[in-house]
Design goal:
Helix content is 86%, strand content 0%. With 382 residues, it is mainly α. The longest helix is centred in the middle third of the chain and has 53 residues, at 121-173.
Length: 382
């Protein structure tokens, strides 16, 4: 499992470590905000398009080869800019990193599910989410230190070495999980399976959690600055958010495995807590920012392992990669949609109303989750 945790850390560290430092330390490549937006969108855009594709490929040929291929390609894409060091190759490297992450991220999730029995999947996904959150937390800080010490090329060099080392580790430690025989699936079959409540409810919860997390990281510093808080204080609040998300995930997974927590209750409580955090963000001053960070972090930390465990439990083993890739697509859409919604509302009113609008959507989420999962439970044979 440890190489899979390291793969999760790698994709998170690569996404945030580089993104957080493109604008401030690459004046030769980032000549405008439009160029910066394009470079940031390349990574996420590749993930939106390719994650379901590579998830299905993992089901067809096995998750380990796709995991290894993605890590190797990530190392090669990172090394490309480290060697070439030109603005044009930065675009190619960033696109390559996003495409590579699209391969090894859903493959790692599928292997987490396949390598653990159902009774231990909550703990496994909780640990996987913990190390991924650590990557998101440390990425901007460590990335900034590396860029300060040796420029953007040093950061890309470290990313190349990290991905190559994780790939070598996975070759030695991760067992081969052969693809399982499966009946032919038509597009109609796929549509019916992805439209089923057992897929839609956890995926919607994961998308909502990712939307709130992205909004918290991006807009809480803005809210704090409006309240007169300094950059150190607002940066600490974002760190609190990420730390809460990381710490809660293993505990949530263990509680699920032990039967102390159900998926239905956990997702509903997580969505309600996250919505409460967004409402706290509407309060002025330090109290509003810190309380929002704690509640958003804890809520998303509760949702993430429960959502992935629910997906793994309801998915046929032979379709695990496809499901994880599709669920990751839902998360990416939430990651983009949450900030867009808040920004759009804030543009025509204020940021306070932007937070409130997303909170309303997440408040409806628990009711829909409870209703859909309860109906599914009622139909189950007794």
């Amino acid at each position: 499992m440890w190489p899979l945790y390291a793969a999760g850390f790698t994709t998170a560290f690569g996404a945030h470590g580089i993104a957080a430092n493109l604008g401030g330390f690459s004046d030769d490549a980032v000549t405008s905000l439009l160029v910066l937006g394009g470079l940031l969108a390349l990574y996420d855009g590749a993930e939106v398009v390719l994650k379901p594709v590579f998830g299905s490929l993992a089901d067809r040929i096995g998750a380990k080869p796709v995991l290894l291929g993605g890590l190797v390609f990530f190392a090669a894409a990172s090394a490309l800019y480290a060697v070439a060091d030109s603005p044009g190759w930065l675009w190619a490297a960033r696109l390559g990193q996003g495409a590579a992450a699209s391969a090894f991220s859903p493959s790692a999730s599928a292997l987490v599910a396949r390598l653990n029995p159902a009774a231990k999947r909550g703990r496994a996904f909780g640990s996987y989410g913990f190390y991924k959150s650590i990557g998101y937390t440390l990425g901007p800080l460590l990335g900034g230190l590396l860029v300060w010490a040796g420029g953007l090329r040093l950061l890309f060099t470290v990313m190349a070495v990290l991905a190559a080392a994780v790939a070598a580790w996975a070759v030695l430690a991760v067992p081969v999980v052969p693809p399982l025989p499966k009946r032919r699936q038509t597009l109609a079959d796929l549509a019916r399976r992805l439209a089923d409540r057992s897929f839609l409810a956890p995926t919607a919860a994961l998308a909502a959690a990712t939307a709130a997390l992205s909004v918290g990281v991006g807009f809480l510093p803005v809210s704090g600055a409006v309240a007169g808080l300094g950059t150190v204080t607002t940066g600490a609040a974002v760190s609190v958010l990420a730390a809460c998300a990381a710490i809660v995930q293993p505990y949530a997974g263990r509680a699920l495995d032990a039967g102390r927590l159900t998926t239905r209750t956990g997702l509903a409580v997580g969505l309600a807590g996250t919505a409460a955090g967004l409402l706290c963000a509407t309060l002025p001053g330090l109290v509003g920012v810190l309380s929002a960070a704690v509640l958003i972090g804890a809520g998303t930390g509760l949702i993430t392992p429960l959502g992935f465990t629910a997906l793994a439990t309801s998915t046929p083993e032979e379709r695990m990669g496809q499901t994880m890739g599709s669920a990751e697509l839902g998360r990416e859409l939430g990651d983009a949609g949450g900030p867009l919604l808040v920004a759009a509302v804030a543009t025509v009113s204020t940021l306070t109303y932007g937070f409130a609008a997303l909170a309303v959507l997440l408040t409806v989420g628990p009711l829909l989750t409870l209703a859909s999962l309860r109906r599914r439970s009622d139909r189950a044979p007794r």
